[in-house]
Amino acid sequence: MIIKWSLMALTAGSTAGIGLFIFGSMNNFREWSGKSYPFFTGTAFVLMLTGLVIHIMGLGTPSNLLGMLSHITTGFSMATIGTVLLVVLLFIIAIRSSMGKSTPKWMPIFGFILSVCVCYGLSLVYTKASRPALNHWFIPLYIAAVTCLSGSYGHIFFRRPYFRSGAVVRFMFLAMTISAVAGFLINLKIIDTADRYLNMQIINSNMAWCFYGGTVIIGLGGPLMAELALKFSKRGRIFTLAGWIGTFIGSISFFTIINILG
Question: Is residue 100 helix, strand or coil?
Answer without folding.
Answer: coil
